[in-house]
């Protein structure tokens, strides 16, 4: 489903962990590092981004500590919007026109989620950042990545990981014999209980034949390389 313009169109998923640099809050140096790598493909690749919020709040964790799950999930979604604004800021500084679209209405800081408009932005060389998840509790931003990618007709979902450069046969930090997969099918991942995304997201990709690449964002230009389509991580397909 390459964009009508013939250009590659991708959906980049950045977890909240990426934004926080492993801590709570925003790590500006890391956000700048990512923004500059997105800027490198300006005018050549259509880029949409879904950002997580785990560096602020995860609904499931808050509810384990006594909060109502639904309200905690809304807090989680609001956290993603702060990440969106940080990324927007550094993209603008890197010379890339950017729009944030939020699934929860907050018109002072973001446009509402309007898929056709998002596509139009990308055609005009703007990066679109999707915030506030689906706007619905009990979902994850992985699921949002799959859903938005399908709705805007992205060719591929790119899952940027921190601290690991793909999908392995076992946890490479614990098992020295662990090997990296270059390729994997969704059925294999499901069967082997490898959670490259959460189950809802994986099922959605599988059912709709949407390919994905899991890659490590550290290292020189890895985000740019992934955006360009280099197979630097693990490719997961039907
Ligand atoms: N969330 C939600 N609905 C959505 C997306 C996210 O309720 O559609 C909430 C949920 O509480 C989640 C939090 O937002 O824990 C942050 O998102 P996520 O955990 O997916 O972020 P990541 O792990 O990618 O940093």
From TrEMBL:
Picking any one GO molecular function of the record gives: UMP kinase activity
Localization in the cell: Cytoplasm
* Positions of UMP binding: 53, 73, 134-141
* Binding residues for ATP: 13-16, 54, 58, 168, 171
Q: In which pathway does it act?
A: Pyrimidine metabolism; CTP biosynthesis via de novo pathway; UDP from UMP (UMPK route): step 1/1
The Aspartate/glutamate/uridylate kinase domain covers which part of the protein? 9-215
EC number(s) per entry: 2.7.4.22
Q: Which residues form a coiled coil?
A: none
The catalysed reaction is: UMP + ATP = UDP + ADP
**Which CDD domains does the record associate with it?**
AAK_UMPK-PyrH-Ec
Activity regulation: the record says: Inhibited by UTP.
- Source species, domain of life: Bacteria
Which UniProt keywords are given for this protein, alphabetically ordered? ATP-binding, Cytoplasm, Kinase, Nucleotide-binding, Pyrimidine biosynthesis, Transferase
Q: Does the keyword rRNA processing apply?
A: no
What this protein is reported to do is described as: Catalyzes the reversible phosphorylation of UMP to UDP.
Q: Which family does it belong to?
A: Belongs to the UMP kinase family.
Quote the subunit structure annotation: Homohexamer.
PANTHER family in UniProt: URIDYLATE KINASE, URIDYLATE KINASE PUMPKIN, CHLOROPLASTIC
Designated name of the protein: Uridylate kinase
- What species does this protein belong to? Citricoccus muralis
Classification of source organism: Bacteria, Bacillati, Actinomycetota, Actinomycetes, Micrococcales
């Amino acid at each position: 489903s390459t964009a009508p313009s013939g250009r590659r169109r991708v959906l980049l998923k950045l977890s909240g962990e990426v934004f926080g640099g492993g801590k709570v809050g925003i790590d500006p140096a890391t956000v700048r590092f990512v923004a500059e790598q997105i800027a490198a493909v300006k005018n050549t690749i259509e880029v949409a981004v879904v950002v997580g919020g785990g560096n602020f709040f995860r609904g499931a964790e808050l509810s384990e500590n006594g909060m109502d799950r639904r309200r905690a999930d809304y807090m989680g979604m609001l956290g993603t919007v702060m990440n969106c604004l940080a990324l927007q800021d550094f993209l603008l500084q890197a010379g890339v026109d950017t729009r944030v679209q939020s699934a929860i209405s907050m018109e002072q800081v973001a446009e509402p989620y309007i898929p056709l408009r998002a596509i139009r932005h990308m055609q005009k060389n703007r990066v679109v950042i999707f915030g506030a998840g689906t706007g619905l509790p009990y979902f994850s931003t992985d699921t949002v990545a799959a859903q938005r990618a399908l709705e805007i007709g992205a060719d591929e979902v790119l899952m940027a990981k921190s601290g690991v450069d793909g999908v392995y046969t076992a946890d490479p930090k614990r098992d020295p014999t662990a090997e990296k997969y270059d390729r994997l099918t969704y059925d294999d991942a499901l069967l082997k209980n490898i959670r490259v995304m959460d189950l809802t997201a994986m099922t959605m990709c599988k059912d709709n034949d949407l390919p994905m690449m899991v890659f490590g964002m550290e290292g020189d230009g890895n985000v740019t390389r992934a955006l360009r389509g280099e197979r630097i991580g693990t490719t997961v397909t039907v």
